[in-house]
Amino acid sequence: MRKYLAIIWTMSMTLVVSSVATAANLALPDFTELVEENSGSVVKIVTESQVEPVNQADVEQLPELFRYFFGDQLPEDFDYQAPQPSEGLGSGFIISEDGYILTNNHVVSGADKVSVRMTNGDIFDAEVVGTDPGTDIAVLKIEGKNLPVVEFGDSDELKVGEWVLAIGSPFNFEYSVTAGIVSAKGRALGGADRYVPFIQTDVAINPGNSGGPLFNLDGKVVGINSQIYTRSGGFMGVSFAIPINIAMKVAKQLQETGEVQRGWLGVEMYPPFNEDLELARSMGLERADGALIARVFPNSPAEAAGLKADDVLIEIDGHKVRRYADVPPLIGAFSPGDKVDLTVIRGGDKKEFRVVIGSLSNAQLAQAEQGALPDHTADNPLNIIVSDVSGVNGVRVEEVQPGPAQRAGMRKGDIITMMRNEFVESKGDFDRIVSNLPKNGAVAVRILRGNNIVYLAIPTH
């Protein structure tokens, strides 16, 4: 009996292990076919940058060893040759049979020479057709025919949790393959790449991967691997890719004209708004969602459409605006002349506007000027001393005495330009508004601090 029980137990365990193995095989994708079909369209990019030789006039550039022995008294005929030209590495992929290649701008930026190495070992000199620092895109061209090309997917259809795969040359290890999943979409990193809603993945990306393709399981390119988040200089589980839909739109303009024209609205936003629930509520909002417009530039598309400072932008052409960082990539994706519908919250009410998108390259940004310092006395519940300012619509804060404004962070020299959704163009406007402040509430105050716009929510209890 025991013998039969042992046999049954052994068979049961075998079935369980077999089932687990089968489930694991079903859950984990097999990338081999994808890699075999697409690796030929991925290229290694090598750049060279010339370094100026050091002569007598460039003593400070010499290695410490030379300056230690010779100081500033070098022989007249001394000619120290700098190290060999610096070399950079990156990745890219072929987008047309006649040799157009897509990569990152930072891979080829500042390079004197760019060459491309294929998987079969062929090496080509490459011409930089055009670059766009705003999206970190560059288009290269090599002389070739019937070259292997990638297929393009739709990055808008990419889903969080979806498997993706990268091919590139990290640390000069050619055609390395790494895989992972989409961690998030629409990541705004700010800085020079503020026009890109990045795809975040956990695919291992390292120096040399930049510019390489990000594939979905159908073997179609959905992004360009561009950046990593790191504190060590190496991969830490967070990498970012440029959506291919944006990249190809930029690439088309670079191929046709060599430059990129992107949409321009003409507003300055206030980033801290999205972290300040009290400020949002003081402006009639339940949550700190949207993008608070701090400034509308003169002669801009926004001004022509009727947008105003203190408007909270919540929707652009049907796309929800959750944070201020959502606005640049959404507006930048339009072409100059496009008509776009905007939805804002103004004074607690929803309003619709149609704007004709302008060109960012022709934008002229205005800056406020500051005037003299007259004398006035404090006579308001905020306990601040203000004065009229010549040449600026607003009042200058001359003194901040102990009280609600001081606790909220107001400083001497701030220029108050708006309160409670009303423009403050003079001390008379200021006096009128503060005389009717609500009790046991808060007032939203827009100030100009140097060249920056700052919002404060000042309690009135």
UniProtKB/TrEMBL annotation:
It is an enzyme of class 3 (hydrolase). It catalyses: Acts on substrates that are at least partially unfolded. The cleavage site P1 residue is normally between a pair of hydrophobic residues, such as Val-|-Val. The keyword NAD does not apply. Keywords: Hydrolase, Periplasm, Protease, Repeat, Serine protease, Signal, Stress response. Residues 249-348 form the PDZ domain. Gene3D superfamilies: 2.30.42.10, 2.40.10.120. GO terms for cellular component: periplasmic space. Substrate binds at E48, H106, D136, G208, N209, S210. GO terms for biological process: proteolysis. The active site is at H106 (charge relay system), D136 (charge relay system), S210 (charge relay system). Belongs to the peptidase S1C family. This is Probable periplasmic serine endoprotease DegP-like. It comes from Reinekea marinisedimentorum.
